[in-house]
Design brief:
Elements lengths: L1 E7 L4 E4 L1 H11 L4 E7 L4 E7 L3 H14 L20 H10 L3 E7 L2 E2 L5 E7 L6 E8 L1
Antiparallel strand pairs: 1-8, 2-7, 3-5, 3-8, 4-7, 5-6
C-alpha cells in the first residue's frame, strides 16, 4: 500500500505529521508490516522525536540554525549556491545531516512508536512550503 501526504509547513521548524500517518494506517489496514516514509525534497528532513514538550522542537530548530546559519552569516561566506536566497544552501546542508526516510514497524494497523515519539517534517527553509512525504507499507 502506498500514498503521498501533502504537508503544508509554515517555515523553519518541526511540523508533526504523526496524526495524518496514523489516520491513513487506520483506514488502509488492520495488518502488520513495515512503514517507510520518504520526503521528496532536498531542503527538508524527517525525524522521529519527542512530541510531549514543544520546547524540544524549538531547541532542535535553534540548535540547527546555530550549527548551520544563513548564508548571510560571515561564517558561511564560503558558500557559492546562493541564488535562491540566504536560507537555501544552509537548508541543503541541514538536510544532509538528518534523515530523509524513516521506517516504523506497524502491528494491527498501528505504528509501534514509543510513548513520547512523534513523526516530524523538519522544514529547513524560511518560507512556508508544501512538502510531499511518500509512504509505503509492506
Amino acid at each position: 500500500m502506498q500514498t503521498t501526504f501533502e504537508i503544508a509547513t509554515f517555515g523553519q521548524g518541526l511540523h508533526e505529521i504523526t496524526g495524518e500517518v496514523a489516520a491513513w494506517l487506520r483506514g488502509a489496514t488492520a495488518g502488520d508490516g513495515l512503514l517507510t516514509l520518504f520526503i521528496r525534497h532536498t531542503s527538508a528532513s524527517l525525524l522521529i522525536q519527542e512530541n510531549a514538550d514543544p520546547a524540544v522542537q524549538a531547541d532542535l530548530a535553534a540548535f540547527f540554525a546555530r550549527l548551520v546559519p544563513r548564508a548571510t552569516d560571515p561564517s558561511m561566506s564560503y558558500l557559492t549556491h546562493t541564488q535562491e536566497g540566504p536560507d537555501d544552501m544552509p537548508s541543503h546542508i541541514r538536510a544532509t545531516m538528518m534523515p530523509v526516510s524513516l521506517q516504523v514497524p506497524v502491528t494491527g494497523g498501528r505504528m509501534w512508536l514509543g510513548t513520547w515519539q512523534g513523526i516530524y517534517v523538519f522544514e529547513h527553509r524560511d518560507a512556508p512550503r508544501t512538502r510531499q512525504v511518500a509512504a509505503h507499507l509492506g
